[in-house]
Design goal:
It comes from Teichococcus deserti. This is MFS transporter. It is a multi-pass membrane protein. There is one protein chain. By secondary structure, the chain is mainly α. The protein has a single domain, classed as MFS general substrate transporter like domains (Growth Hormone, Chain: A). The protein contains 17 helices and no strands. α3 runs antiparallel to α15. The longest helix is centred in the first third of the chain and has 30 residues. The relative contact order is 0.17.
């Protein structure tokens, strides 16, 4: 609800795709700087406390934005600054929360748990926009953002109820300087023959394709000539597609074949995005949005499953922080680039160019698929991995 409301607020205030992109960038971009640091922090401190404090900051930011909007004291510059604060806190929350998962479920259940975690997120992506559209249309932007503040307040109150294995609740004792541990995380991923190329592929796909979802208000108005209700319907279709894909991966419950799914989902997402931006007919846009949501979910869950299971336990926080950086900073960079180019060329042709680059990246990933698979999944067996 918050994302839809903030994007719509930025569009109403400026009528500029560039500003909408900047607001998305301000929420997501801090991950580029903060995530590696947050990963090292999560590998040293009490992860439950870190997650709780980070989520409290996000809730306070949402309450501040809602209050400023309700009192008509918001400006586009202030909105960008507040979203930067929220994005910084989220960069700390992500690795802390993800690393807790291995302390809640047995290792054998971890792939299914990762999929279930993503499934819950995608249920929220479906319900949130479905609620946001009518709330914004009837009551305005402020109540939709206030709902986010209430939700994070609930999260802060319930996080201490989690029962986490003490060995996974706190990271390892300091083994080097703090900056040294951040550097170790980068080097570990860069030198890993499976995680390195897989995360590079995911980062490239994130820049080229995920940015479309961050710029939906301009697409809704310019491509389809519709308003806030249609924006919520379109975003709900993204969530429905992601939900179906998440259910399938959760039921699948294993990492065998995850590399193949992750790489080929990038190609499917590029094709679906081409269909989304090439059409002006809203029903076709809805179908393509569902396919984009499904392919993005297949890609993201599979990469996260592999990162959780393949990473050394002592490095897990830093690896998942880099994954968080990819999921937040790369779409932010893409949204900024697409928003800026959209001001000059319109949104359709730059997006199609991004999709063409994404297909070239898929060809690169496909050529390396078997080598990545061999490292992250072990030798394929004849039945299960096909």
């Amino acid at each position: 609800m918050h994302r839809i409301a903030v994007a719509w607020l930025a569009w109403e205030m400026t009528r500029s795709a560039l500003w909408v992109g900047l607001v998305a960038f301000s929420d997501l971009a801090p991950a580029a700087v903060i995530s590696p640091i947050a990963g090292a922090v999560a590998d040293r401190l009490d992860r439950l406390k870190l997650a709780t404090i980070s989520q409290a900051v996000i809730g306070i930011e949402a309450a501040a934005v809602a209050t400023l909007v309700a009192t008509d004291n918001i400006s586009i510059g202030l909105l960008v600054a507040l979203e930067l604060c929220s994005g910084t806190a989220a960069s700390f929350a992500q690795p802390a929360r993800q690393t807790l998962m291995s302390g809640i479920v047995p290792r054998a259940d971890l792939p299914a748990a990762v999929a279930c975690n993503s499934l819950v997120f995608n249920v929220a992506r479906f319900i949130g926009p479905a609620l946001a559209g009518p709330v914004i249309a009837v009551f305005g932007v402020a109540p939709a953002i206030a709902c986010n503040a209430l939700a994070y307040g609930s999260a802060v109150l319930t996080m201490p109820m989690l029962r986490v294995d003490p060995a996974h609740r706190r990271g390892h004792p300091a083994t080097a300087s703090f900056i040294g541990e951040v550097r170790e995380g980068f080097l570990y991923v860069a030198r890993h023959p499976g995680l390195g190329p897989l995360l590079a592929y995911a980062a490239s796909i994130g820049v080229m394709l995920r940015c479309v979802q961050e710029l939906l208000p301009p697409f809704v108005e310019r491509n389809f000539g519709r308003g806030a209700e249609s924006l919520a319907l379109l975003t709900a279709c993204f969530g429905i597609g992601a939900l179906v894909a998440g259910f399938w991966l959760a039921a699948r419950g294993r990492t065998a074949g995850a590399t193949r799914i992750a790489i080929r989902a990038g190609m499917l997402q590029a094709v679906a995005t081409i269909g989304f931006v090439a059409t002006g007919w809203f029903p076709v846009g809805l179908v393509c949005a569902a396919l984009i949501g499904a392919s993005a979910s297949l890609h993201g869950i599979s990469v996260q499953q592999l990162a959780q299971t393949a990473a050394d336990p002592a490095m897990r926080g830093r690896v998942l922080a880099l994954w968080g950086m990819i999921t937040r900073a790369c779409p932010a960079l893409g949204a900024l680039l697409l928003g800026a180019s959209g001001e000059v060329f319109g949104l359709r042709w730059p997006t199609l160019a991004f999709c063409a680059l994404a297909l070239a990246i898929y060809a690169w990933g496909y050529a390396r698929q078997h080598r990545i698979e061999a490292v992250l999944e072990g030798p394929p067996d004849d039945g299960e991995n096909r």
